[in-house]
Amino acid sequence: xxxxxxxxxxxxxxxxxxxxxxxxxxxxxxxxxxxxxxxxxxxxxxxxxxxxxxxxxxxxxxxxxxxxxxxxxxxxxxxxxxxxxxxxxxxxxxxxxxxxxxxxxxxxxxxxxxxxxxxxxxxxxxxxxxxxxxxxxxxxxxxxxxxxxxxxxxxxxxxxxxxxxxxxxxxxxxxxxxxxxxxxxxxxxxxxxxxxxxxxxxxxxxxxxxxxxxxxxxxxxxxxxxxxxxxxxxxxxxxxxxxxxxxxxxxxxxxxxxxxxxxxxxxxxxxxxxxxxxxxxxxxxxxxxxxxxxxxxxxxxxxxxxxxxxxxxxxxxxxxxxxxxxxxxxxxxxxxxxxxxxxxxxxxxxxxxxxxxxxxxxxxxxxxxxxxxxxxxxxxxxxxxxxxxxxxxx
Length: 394
Ligand code: NAD
Ligand code: MG
Known about the structure:
Elements: E1 2-7, H1 12-22, E2 28-35, H2 39-49, E3 53-56, H3 59-72, E4 77-80, H4 81-89, E5 96-99, H5 107-115, E6 119-122, H6 125-141, E7 145-148, H7 151-159, H8 168-171, E8 173-180, H9 198-201, H10 211-219, H11 221-233, E9 241-245, E10 251-257, E11 262-266, H12 272-280, H13 294-297, H14 311-322, H15 326-342, H16 350-361, H17 370-393
Parallel strand pairs: 1-2, 1-5, 2-3, 3-4, 5-6, 6-7, 8-9
Antiparallel strand pairs: 8-10, 10-11
Nicotinamide-adenine-dinucleotide (NAD) is lined by residues 8-14, 35-36, 38, 57, 100-102, 105, 123-126, 150, 207, 209-210, 212-213, 271.
């Protein structure tokens, strides 16, 4: 029986994780569930899975949850704040930590899981983008197991030889081919992009996801963040990671070898597949996902990305090449810009403008320590907020 802690238990990833867990009550026990401020949602998850701990990042929400649970589920202890999140990620009775908080807020709790030597099921790509060098070092030092949940990275993990960390050359590894559906705006005329509403940007053709990652998919920043994520996870450099537009979203990514072979992982676009893979690894288990019917898919299309239509993808690649805290700055600017867009303060096309301006105004430095990373994250947020204000004033 494995104890599971779910960081971000009211999001889209978690709904899928709890669905997988509910199929295997004899194998997995939910030890802790966490959320930001969605008291009602977390309360219902607690009533269903009866965890020993529930954490709300928001202190007031934690008080409300504690009051409700005291009456109906007194055995669940309620904790609050980032310290509560870090505490449950490192509990001795926890074996697996699903890291699915959205954005930079996930970094410290996910790091706590790595430092406690857990199996970390990583959905929270922003943690790796903003602090990859530190995060990977902590994983190594504490013997944590890092398994990718992002569908593309999970696909690559499945196509790589087990010893990929020992060096690419001796294994004949050449390139990673990271697929992308192209998002909901792949064919929208470029001149119409400035009028795209938050709901239009979030209407992903193949995946149902949280609103932040949905906007990232529409700008293709999501794929840019995934290029950086892939470099850290698979010990490679951005010139070895190619983005391939594949609108059907059934080939989840590929690995190219020296002899010209390309290995791919196929499956329905359903996050329960990578989640079940990472939870059962190195075994396999049922995920509940619909089987892929290749006759229904019928054809597979691949095309090169258009970096003029999707400038965010270019900026992310530039940050990947620049290294140091460039990606920390990119990620922070993107979080501020996406939040402002979802709040209808700026237009869709202002997102790349804000990221560009923030990267120009904020100089990166080597990724030496966590304090520097958190400081650069804050510097970039301040700059990006002032860019939002400037755009609104125009
Ligand atoms: P979501 O918005 O649906 O859920 C986010 C979760 O994070 C919620 O439970 C929320 O309570 C929690 N949260 C938000 N802010 C927090 C804070 N400050 N402190 C603590 N908790 C906080 O997002 P999602 O779509 O589930 O995505 C989660 C992560 O997984 C993201 O990093 C995303 O990039 C990644 N991911 C998601 C998918 C997907 O299919 N949804 C696929 C690949 C990767
Ligand atoms: Mg992905």
